[in-house]
Amino acid sequence: MTEQTKKFPEGFLWGGAVAANQVEGAYNVGGKGLSTADVSPNGVMYPFDESMESLNLYHEGIDFYHRYKEDIALFAEMGFKAFRTSIAWTRIFPNGDETEPNEEGLEFYDRLFDELLKYNIEPVVTISHYEMPLGLIKKYGGWKNRKVIDCYEHYAKTVFTRYKEKVKYWMTFNEINMVLHAPFTGGGLVFEEGENKLNAMYQAAHHLFVASALAVKAGHDIIPDAKIGCMIAATTTYPMTPKPEDVLAAMENERRTLFFSDVQARGAYPGYMKRFFKENGITIEMAEGDEDILKENTVDYIGFSYYMSMVASTSPEDLAKTEGNLLGGVKNPYLESSEWGWQIDPKGIRITLNTLYDRYQKPLFIVENGLGAVDVVEEDGSIQDDYRINYLRDHLKEVREAIADGVDLIGYTSWGPIDLVSASTAEMKKRYGYIYVDRDNEGKGTLSRTRKKSFYWYKKVIETNGESL
Ligand code: BG6
């Protein structure tokens, strides 16, 4: 196959992705309640500081709440076809369990989606991205409690009904598998002393599955032409050696993630998880009818984030550690790492796309990919982020290969098209954007926006539908 015959499909959704809590700021404006992010000064790995005394960059974010028009105009200038963001649950239901939604919150997203549609940018909406109302944690213990399913279903129905004419692409939960790795942010879980954490996390996962399936059902009823997807953090894992034990360990590591998409895309708990539960003394409480709900309401597409690959080894001497988005792992000697220690593996995105497509035969959507790096503003005010361009180009070349392999791919929304507050470490210094935002880790800066070199590169990529990479 020649380079010329490898193409991105017509209508491919090029764009960028953010999350409400990492950009909007205005954490106490417009009737918004407190969410997990508002009390997580150090990012998703840490439990909360309800006193709110520490500096918390999420509170102001990049002030997208007030500057979204200016930012969307820049996305439009790059030619975005799609923009992924989330709705802050606490703008709609400040405590999470109210019956009536907060009209001011609903109006904000009306304005935001209208602004996108004005430029023919397709909104792609995550219903819950790493923030849940603090009220639901205090009152019910987060996703440990079945009651939260009702609150989420009510929230999902509210936003489907309100935005049914504006939003067709939805995702139920961001990186749903992270409930196992960042239980506070992924599931609002705070453990009691002596509690069986593993059991609590899998019980929360079950509630997330049922809630997600009920949202898929409601979404299809309310918006017949909606596409509702799941979203996992891909954890493609290589064996350190061809030793069968390492190969098995790699498979098991992948299954800890694929379990989530298996349930959401195939509609049932896989046999390997039933075995895992039995061997680890885990009991999942299910209500009558749960299994039918899961079976009858599978997702339309698989959304996923991809930043790196992982390695599994059964030899203790291999355990040189590396960092990752909430997941560390064994170091791969063949890969370079980012400044934050995340291993850079463009081929891994092709492998991931093929694995997921072979397994589910459903459309895929890359809804996050990108490089977090320190940027330097030159004396002339420019930002020469060639390292970011290289990362994205190398990955997109492999995406194009995967499409040539036969993978059905809806689109590509790179993470953080505009600099934002990072999730795992809650800092501004780790930048992903094509657009620079003047704000530092101390919260100082004018918040002004500047086009980086990558801005012009990505514009060209979109203009040529990926022919010029
Ligand atoms: C994903 C999350 O895990 O990775 C995003 O969905 C997050 O919310 C992104 O921002 C990058 O991670 P970080 O920690 O660099 O912000």
What count of helical segments does DSSP give? 14
Radius of gyration, whole Å:
21 Å
Shape: globular
Low-confidence stretches: none
Say which CATH homologous superfamily is assigned. Glycosidases
Q: How much beta, percentage-wise?
A: 5-15%
Average pLDDT figure? 95
Tell how many strands the DSSP assignment holds.
16
Let me know the largest β-sheet. Answer: 8 strands, parallel, barrel
Q: CATH first level: which class?
A: Alpha Beta
Helix content: 25-40%
Present as ligands are:
6-O-phosphono-beta-D-glucopyranose
Kindly report the CATH topology.
Answer: TIM Barrel
What is the number of independent domains? Answer: 1
The CATH architecture name reads: Alpha-Beta Barrel
Cα separation of the termini: 18 Å
Order of helical and strand elements: EHHEHHEHHEHHEEHHHEEEEEEHEHEEEH
Describe the strand arrangement of the main beta sheet, using strand numbers.
1-2-3-4-5-7-13-14
EC number: 3.2.1.86
Catalytic activity: 6-phospho-beta-D-glucosyl-(1->4)-D-glucose + H2O = D-glucose 6-phosphate + D-glucose
Family: Belongs to the glycosyl hydrolase 1 family.
Keywords: Glycosidase, Hydrolase
Topology:
Layout: E1 13-17, H1 20-23, H2 64-78, E2 82-86, H3 89-92, H4 103-118, E3 122-128, H5 134-140, H6 147-163, E4 169-173, H7 183-187, H8 197-222, E5 227-233, E6 237-239, H9 244-266, H10 271-279, H11 290-296, E7 301-305, E8 310-312, E9 321-322, E10 329-330, E11 336-337, E12 343-344, H12 346-360, E13 364-368, H13 386-404, E14 409-415, E15 435-437, E16 449-451, H14 453-463
Parallel strand pairs: 1-2, 1-14, 2-3, 3-4, 4-5, 5-7, 6-8, 7-13, 13-14
Antiparallel strand pairs: 9-10, 11-12, 15-16
